[in-house]
Amino acid sequence: MPLSLTEKILSAHLVEPKEGLPARGADIAIRIDQTLTQDATGTMAYLQFETIGLDRVKTELSVSYIDHNTLQEDYKNMDDHRYLQSVAARYGLWFSRAGNGICHQVHLERFGIPGKTLLGSDSHTPTGGGIGMIAIGAGGLDVAVAMGGGAFHLSMPRVFGVRLTGSLRAGVSAKDVILEVLRRETVKGGVGSVYEYFGPGVASLSVPQRATITNMGAELGATCSVFPSDEATRSFMEAMGRGSDWTPLAADEGARYDKVIEIDLSSLAPLAAQPHSPDAVATVSSLAGKPVTQVAIGSCTNSSLSDLAAVAAIVKGKTVAPGVEAGISPGSRQTLMQAEKTGILGELIRAGFRILESACGPCIGMGFAPNSGGVSLRTFNRNFKGRSGTPDASVYLVSPETAAIAAITGVISDPTLVASSLASAAQVFNTPECGCIRDDGMLIAPLPLGQANKVEIVRGPNIKPCPASPELPDSLECPVLLKAGDNVSTDDIMPAGAKVLPLRSNIPEISRFTFERLDPSFYDRAKAFSGCFVVGGENYGQGSSREHAALAPMYLGVRVVFVKSFARIHKANLVNYGILPLVFADPSAYDLLSQGDVLAVSGIRSAIGGADSVTVTRKGDGLSVTAKVELDARSRKILLSGGLAAYTRAGGQ
Ligand code: MIC
Ligand code: SF4
Predict the structure, then answer these.
(1) Does the CA dihedral 501-507-513-517 come out positive or negative?
(2) What's the chain's average pLDDT?
(3) Distance 426 CA to ligand 1 centre (A)
(4) I want to staple 478 with a disulfide (CB 3.0 to 4.6 A). Which of 143, 367, 531, 554 is the partner?
(5) Distance (Å, rounded) from C-alpha 3 to C-alpha 9?
(6) How far is the CA of 653 from the centre of ligand 1 (A)?
(7) Strand partners, 397
(8) What angle (nearest 5°) sits at the alpha carbon of residue 606, between those of residues 605 and 612?
(9) DSSP state of 411
């Protein structure tokens, strides 16, 4: 039977079931070739890895990146970096030092290989799909298990084909393609699915453009997104000095998809995701004229050399408008060096852009927050309320072209209106030299085993052991401490930003910020009880892979999260830390429950053992609500063992 590219790569890595790929939705386990972690999720992942007791990672390649927590206001972040560097040296990982760039961009440039699997403790790991990898985001504990040689378990995804025809008009970019997919599919449309791009339009897209699309596929809730590996992939790999890692890959002729989305690239217009959701998409022309106070270019979505070239082409010889603050964070040090060599950087400096370091920076609220009530145009991938650091700012997600024009005009403007000058100006920077700088000076290679064994792990005072998950009791009676709405993001559950991120290695301290954006009293109220429920709507836990959004609630006594539907990574993180995820059998029952209700469930352990549902009863009036136990066989065992760490220590696979 002809296979999609997704099915081919999954089959080549299938560990379970032995008989071959099962039906959609069935449990599968795949071998992981490469892993990546970043500093904000990495410390917990390596604290867990250390407890496995291995001498060395068992993957083909594992890389530890420093890119998130680079504002060093005190010792905490730098202590984390030192810990991560010593762990990398001790266990045979590559280490990418602070300043070397954003994990996804550097990984694409220096390590990614078509056809391989990559598991990363960051939700934008699917960036690797731009060169034909099955690259999946997961919680740090899942990545720790993969580094130890364990398989990654997931549900066999549906494979949605995205058939591209035509080619992009000048002024329209890859960001507009993924915004169009988000407009049609929404932030929950991709849960349980892989988006596989194919069709005659693919050839017209470069690898950085493809990587923008696969990166932001995370916002669909998708397992990952993937492009074929073709001549464009070959030239990218050759430009990176890694031509020998290239292999051609594509779906078989006649491959069947679970659904096909048709996109004519030529018909697309510039788009923007409006506040406060990546799927609140409108055309840029419908927003034209709106005053802008800030422009930020960068993040793992749009910070390649071609993105910077597009910006430089527009701002060349002009100055940032008086009412706008503009900043740029190049995706990698290599990109920054290329930008310097090709004159792009000089143009940006001349135009008045603030040059921020090659890191996540403003994307995760590490500096460069907008003014009160400001309007910030960002080339990033998430615009959840408050994520920028300014609670009442309006953040729009746009292409580098749209952001650049706003920087010089001070208002939202349609980049296709200056398309002809744009197209010719872009040629200035897209010279052959653009690809030729390769510099691995800030990457530290793994040590040979003999030397690695002698490395001492350095632990700063802020690095506290990961708290153990409690065993789930057979019956529970406790209050609903929070009732949340639809599309609650992990930023809502556990915010990031310059104030909170330095506490990622210290669960007792970071737990003070749990649900801070939704209800600042949550921490104090949770401390007063010895267990509680959280109730939520659709797509609960969308966004980041941060397992702190499960760990901190677990630490504060959240035992059950009862919602209409879950985002994939967050649900796995809840299971990994021993919190029971339940789903309303009838979504309208959500309306019957209120914050403060005391709920009781009995027979929890036997339900986890094999039942599809369990009854939740409200104390007082006895209202009973059916909750679905939507768990695969392994997740059930993990929950019964008291979480993934305990399950793995007991020999569970
Ligand atoms: C994000 O974009 O939200 C992050 C910060 O990169 C997270 C990881 C984290 O919270 O550390 C992600 O996307 O997984
Ligand atoms: Fe970093 Fe932002 Fe990308 Fe997350 S989305 S990895 S914070 S650049």
Answers:
(1) positive
(2) 96
(3) 32
(4) 531
(5) 10
(6) 27
(7) 273, 378
(8) 110
(9) B
Rounded-to-integer distance, Cα 377 and Cα 124, Å: 20
What is the reported pLDDT for 433?
44
**Atom 9 of ligand 1, nearest CA residue:** 546
Q: Is the CB of 359 under 6 A from ligand 1?
A: no
3-class DSSP state of 141: helix
Reading the block at residue 28, the tokens are 């599968």
Rounded CA gap, 619 and 478, in Å?
Answer: 9
Convert the pLDDT of each residue in 383-403 to its tens digit.
Answer: 999 999 999 999 999 999 999
In terms of C-beta density within 10 A (0-12 exposed, 13-18 middle, 19 or more buried), how is residue 224 classed?
buried
Grouping H, G, I as helix, E, B as strand and the rest as coil, residue 393 is coil
End-to-end CA gap in the chain: 31
Q: Output Rg (C-alpha) for the chain, integer angstroms.
A: 24
Residue nearest to atom 1 of ligand 1 (CA): 544
d(CA 39, CA 505): 10
> Which pair of structure tokens corresponds to residue 247?
């292999």
Any idea which architecture 476-649 has in CATH?
A: Alpha-Beta Barrel (3.20)
- Assess whether pLDDT exceeds 90 at residue 439: no
The rounded distance, in Å, linking the Cα atoms of 61 and 58 is: 8
By CB neighbour count within 10 A (0-12 exposed, 13-18 middle, 19+ buried), where does 550 fall?
buried
Active site positions, annotated: 67-68, 122, 382, 544, 546
Q: How many other β-carbons are positioned within 10 Å of the β-carbon of residue 424?
A: 11
Q: Ligand 1, residues 41, 105, 551: which to mutate, most atoms within 8 A of Cβ?
A: 41
- State how far the alpha carbon of 50 is from the alpha carbons of 47, 91, 430, 504, in Å: 5, 9, 45, 17
* CA nearest neighbour of 580 among 597, 603, 598, 546: 603
Ligand 1 site, residue 249, Cβ cutoff 6 A: no
Q: Give the Cα-Cα-Cα angle 487, 520, 600 (nearest 5 degrees).
A: 70
Q: Hey, what amino acid is at 390?
A: T
Question: Are 131 and 242 contacting, i.e. CB atoms less than 8 angstroms apart?
Answer: no
Q: Where are the domains of the chain?
A: 271-429, 476-649
Q: What is the Å distance from ligand 2's center to 453 Cα?
A: 33
Which of 66, 68, 125 most suits a substitution to test ligand 1, by most atoms within 8 Å of the C-beta?
68
Tokens of 36: 């990546």
pTM beyond 0.90:
yes
499: Cβ–Cβ under 8 A, 6 or more apart, which residues? none
CA angle 482, 486, 491 (to 5 degrees): 70
Rounded Cα distance between 356 and 367, Å, is: 10
Q: Average pLDDT, stretch 302-319?
A: 94
124 Cβ closer than 6 Å to some ligand 1 atom? yes
- Amino acid symbol at 270: P
H/E element, 649? helix 644-649
Two tokens, residue 332:
């990698």
User: What mean pLDDT do residues 114-120 have?
Assistant: 99
Is the minimum distance from the CB of 316 to ligand 1 under 6 angstroms? no
Which protein residues touch ligand 2 with a CB less than 6 Å away? 68, 102, 122, 124, 299-300, 360, 363-364, 381
Q: Tell which atom from ligand 1 comes closest to the C-alpha of 68.
A: 5
**pLDDT tens-digit profile of 331-346?**
999 999 999 999 999 9
pLDDT of residue 233: 97
Q: Of all atoms in ligand 2, which is nearest to the CA of residue 303?
A: 8
Range 271-429 has CATH code 3.30.499.10: yes
